[in-house]
Amino acid sequence: MSSSVSVPRLVIAAPSSGSGKTTVATGLMAAFAARGLAVSPHKVGPDYIDPGYHALASGRVGRNLDAYLCGPELVAPLFLHGARGCDIAVVEGVMGMFDGAAGEGELASTAHVAKLLRAPVVLVVDASSQSRSVAALVHGFASWDPEVRVGGVILNKVASDRHEALLREALESAGVPVFGVLRRVAQVDTPSRHLGLVPVAERRGDAVDSVAAMAEQVAQGCDLEALVGLARGAGALPCAAWDAAEVLGAAPPDPHRPEGPRPQTPDGLEVTTRWASRGRGAVSICGSAAGRDQPPPGPQPSSPVVAVAGGPAFTFSYAEHSELLTAAGAEVVVFDPLHDEQLPDGTAGLVIGGGFPEVYAAELSANEPLRKAVSALAETGAPVAAECAGLLYLCRELDGQPMCGVLDASARMEETLTLGYRDAVAVSDSSLAVAGTRMRGHEFHRTVVEPGAGDAAAWGVRVPRRRLEGFVQRGVHASYLHTHWASQPGVARRFVERCRTS
Questions:
Q1: What number of H helices and E strands is found in the chain?
Q2: Helix, strand or coil for residue 449?
Q3: H-type alpha helices, 309-448
Q4: 118, 39 in Cβ contact below 8 A?
Q5: Contact assessment for residue 360 and residue 313, using Cβ atoms and an 8 Å cutoff
Q6: d(CA 445, CA 420)
Q7: Catalytic residue at 86?
Q8: Which uninterrupted H or E stretch holds 144?
Q9: This prediction's pTM
Q10: Among the listed ranges 111-120, 180-189, 442-451, which one has the minimum average pLDDT value?
Q11: pLDDT one-digit tens code per residue, 225-274
């Protein structure tokens, strides 16, 4: 089913990182919301931290739009899902406007997403060290790809009235509208550490003040009415909004194939159990267009409780994961491993996403009752899905602090940043996927786990080097890879089914 849906929208881009995209995007969201508009906040790429500030600014869940993790075909449907009932959507870009997945051309770049959304772009330019040259810079970005519509610019870090006049004169001669001018304001600066901005959950009061300062600066320095007008010029999108229940109904069931020769990943890494079909659009649990005529799931015999880790130590989660679990029949209950000494009553499955356990290692270790409860749950064979921070929490120790001991592995901080998209294939049957399932993921950490994979690994990964990664044991699937389940909705259904039967 398809339909045309029109949502006023803007994409906030920049020539490079550090230009002020987050300040402008978050400030716009808060300024629009303060004027009574229902604002839908979005972030290009896999970043979990910026959406927390977006949610604080808009009062709605921040959502990611990642053409690498989910595929270009899901960007517009996921956008429309997040923007249901909203008056305007603001999409914060990633890195420089044309920077995307390494070696993949425009894929997953801000420009790519802007084209998929048919949205006008507002370019945020750090003008701190230039005057007339700004016109050449903006002209280059506006003309590089004629399919990207740069509607105008917001000048950031402008030093003085004289500096502003020079910049405006240059851009006027280039025929590019200026929608706003922002001066450097220290109060708007937000603290960072080893993986970027400090998440909202860790600095709630200060974060509220920072967002309020961004909103005030943007409201004073930008022409909000002109920006709303630009957003309203975006046309309708020729697709329907993504819906968790519908995609679960379209996702084919897990295959039951006879034993055969053990298949291999693209780099020759052997899959350890049964084969599932490979190839883009034909993976084992992928919802495809061909499956959309299948009826949606019927009434569920039970609603197993799936505990989802939250709180300051585990802030990385895509909203669609909980929505898919709920649509698959689970009761999703969030708990805080820093403070809750027991898992939620009736927990049948556990999801531990990303975050900063390395920052809270001592506090997590001190919560011995919960560590024992997690270990006991895993011993029963209940499904446990752990990504990155969750992987560290399941290890025997983290920086010398005792953790849950579910995995016979040790984790520690290191200086090297591991960062990038990954093309992966499941090499073991697990509570998330059958062996052979292809998924794309993202790594982002400054830690190392030794050993890096168990006897039954979670994934075979191609780049930056060929390797096996992660752990599958009993019902546990633990890995460094962050994945987006919207690309493989059957993952949630399989997980909930295992919760019912384990």
A1: 14, 22
A2: strand
A3: 319-327, 361-366, 368-379, 389-394
A4: no
A5: yes
A6: 10
A7: no
A8: helix 133-144
A9: 0.88
A10: 180-189
A11: 999 999 999 999 999 999 999 999 887 776 544 333 333 343 444 444 33
